[in-house]
């Protein structure tokens, strides 16, 4: 009974911490998580060949399996975020370009301590060109606030920069085509920590599957600490994941040398 009361107390504290009453379904089996396919082709930070540049500038997406064409990305490690965003806006390296309204490169300061990486734009993001502005974005804002930080302090982006139709998970070839943009952004941002939101960035950036097993475990990407956690959309559907998600965020804070705010 004492354990039960303690758990209930923790859940109430989490609701307060995230500032939201989760619309979760009853505790039960976690729904299947996407991304069980092999790791996509590793990002190549070399400039595209002239033939690839030509393919990128056409009005058709690159053929499936073709190396993605990335115009204007020479010197990616030092490319500034605006240049990367311009390249994204011109990109037709995968089929997701065909139905997009706006590309969603991501937003935030150029020297953030923390980068959140989600899956891909939804309808609200596709319409606005901004990441995490729908219901999941509102929850992410509250999660960031619970950490004692402001949205304006962190950089927020996704694995794919164009909306997958029907909000499906991006296909492996789409992730592989878009990954060089994410890698270029992270190389330019040089954050102290990266928080992966869900199975898709875990697979895309680290080549790992099993977010329910790996969340909260410290990994590394090119020397930068990486903490996988759950996607806010998943938290909205699964009340049972909110407590472990908060524990993950506390690990992120620890990596940043910060304490959770006192309440
Ligand atoms: Fe290019 Fe990425 Fe959009 Fe595909 S999702 S068209 S690779 S920007």
Bound molecules: iron/sulfur cluster
Given this structure, which CATH class is correct? Alpha Beta
- Please give the largest β-sheet: 5 strands, mixed
CA-based gyration radius: 18 Å
Poorly predicted regions: 3-8, 20-59, 64-78
Structural class assignment: alpha/beta
Helix content: 25-40%
Number of helices: 10
Explain what this protein looks like in three dimensions:
There is one protein chain. 39% of the residues lie in helices and 9% in strands. The chain contains 10 helices and 5 strands, in the order αααβααβαβααββαα. Strand 4 and strand 5 (224-229) form a beta hairpin. It is globular, with a radius of gyration of 18 Å. It starts with a helix and ends in an 8-residue tail after the last helix. The site of iron/sulfur cluster (SF4) has 15 residues, from helix 6.
């Amino acid at each position: 009974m004492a354990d039960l009361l303690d758990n209930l107390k923790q859940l109430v504290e989490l609701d307060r911490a995230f500032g939201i009453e989760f619309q979760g379904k009853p505790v039960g089996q976690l729904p299947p998580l996407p991304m069980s396919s092999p790791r996509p082709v590793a990002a190549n930070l070399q400039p595209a060949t002239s033939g690839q540049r030509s393919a990128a500038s056409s009005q058709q997406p690159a053929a499936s399996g073709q190396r993605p064409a990335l115009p204007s990305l020479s010197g990616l490690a030092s490319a500034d975020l605006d240049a990367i965003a311009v390249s994204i806006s011109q990109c037709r390296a995968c089929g997701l370009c065909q139905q997009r309204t706006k590309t969603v490169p991501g937003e935030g300061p150029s020297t953030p301590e923390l980068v959140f990486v989600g899956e891909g734009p939804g309808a609200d993001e596709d319409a606005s060109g901004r990441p995490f502005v729908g219901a999941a974005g509102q929850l992410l804002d509250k999660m960031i606030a619970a950490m004692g930080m402001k949205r304006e302090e962190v950089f927020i982006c996704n694995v794919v920069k164009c909306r997958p139709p029907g909000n499906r998970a991006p296909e492996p070839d789409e992730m592989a085509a878009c990954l060089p943009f994410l890698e270029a952004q992270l190389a330019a941002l040089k954050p102290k920590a990266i928080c992966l939101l869900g199975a898709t960035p875990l697979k895309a950036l680290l080549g790992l599957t099993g977010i329910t097993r790996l969340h909260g475990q410290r990994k590394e990407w090119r020397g930068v600490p990486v903490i996988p956690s759950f996607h806010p959309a998943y938290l909205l559907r699964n009340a049972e994941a909110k407590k472990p998600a908060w524990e993950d965020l506390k690990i992120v804070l620890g990596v940043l040398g910060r304490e959770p705010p006192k309440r």
